[in-house]
Write a structure and sequence with these properties.
Blueprint lengths: L10 H11 L8 H17 L8 E6 L6 H14 L4 E5 L7 H5 L7 H5 L17 E4 L8 H5 L2 H11 L4 E5 L8 H5 L5 E7 L5 H13 L4 E7 L10 E3 L14
Parallel strand pairs: 1-4, 1-5, 2-3, 2-4, 5-6
Antiparallel strand pairs: 6-7
Bound molecules: adenosine-5'-triphosphate and magnesium ion (MG).
Length: 250
Amino acid sequence: MELFHNKNTSKHFLKENIDERKTLHQNLDFTAAEQYKLIRANLDFTLPENEKCPVIGVTSAMRGEGKSTTAINLSYAFAEKGSRVLLIDGDLRIPSIAKKMQIESSPGLADLLRGKGAQLSEFQSYIFKNWYILPSGDVPPNPSELLGSNRMKNVLSALREMLDYIIIDLPPVNIVSDAISISSLISGMIVVIREEYTEKKELERCFRQLKLSNVNVLGCVLNEAKSGGGAYGKYKKYKYYRSAPKGQKS
Ligand SMILES: Nc1ncnc2c1ncn2[C@@H]1O[C@H](COP(=O)(O)OP(=O)(O)OP(=O)(O)O)[C@@H](O)[C@H]1O
Ligand SMILES: [Mg+2]
């Protein structure tokens, strides 16, 4: 049973991944799915008005806080509403979207950035015909430069013409500079915070960095929230960030 193209087929591994599947797209329980719809609705208020195809980055302070899970479920929520949405695996260091979505990891973003042409239809998901998933492609040696490059800008501009939303899963801010590098090419960033996991000092460092780099933070997703509504994130504007200067747009 090769569920995730991984050689480790111990019972423990399979159980973990079966559990993981319950946290993704159509497998979500009602409460969790509703939370993502709420995030989708809130984003429509927070995103710059009248912008053609907003590009939303998803990042966090550290690894393992739920960025990829959030990026998948949020893009699913937009697609479910009928929007044409593309999910991009922009974590070119430790990509995970292909594995989580059980698709091939190549061709993908790295190939487009190398100049390889492709049709959007090649990346259509098996779930909705209006949901496209662009995996990482083969991991390149210089992700940070690539993500902030003119090529990336051109790839995004071309994709924007064909879509309603683009959501990019990014690496964590406190570990590598990739999320900051791409920030001037996107409409804004969502920061994922995992309850009882994200350390306060790491979160403060992350927001300091985002503020210094003039990143447009759209809001935060509190992942695996124990308090309030459901198991999934309450979405709210991060108080500390309300008066932050807006980031540049492409
Ligand atoms: N709300 C949740 N409830 C239960 N499990 C969750 C939840 N969010 C994430 N997970 C699990 O936590 C693990 C890390 O999540 P995910 O891969 O989305 O994080 P990440 O921030 O993208 O990690 P990385 O920094 O390594 O890319 C995964 O196994 C995922 O299934
Ligand atoms: Mg991830």
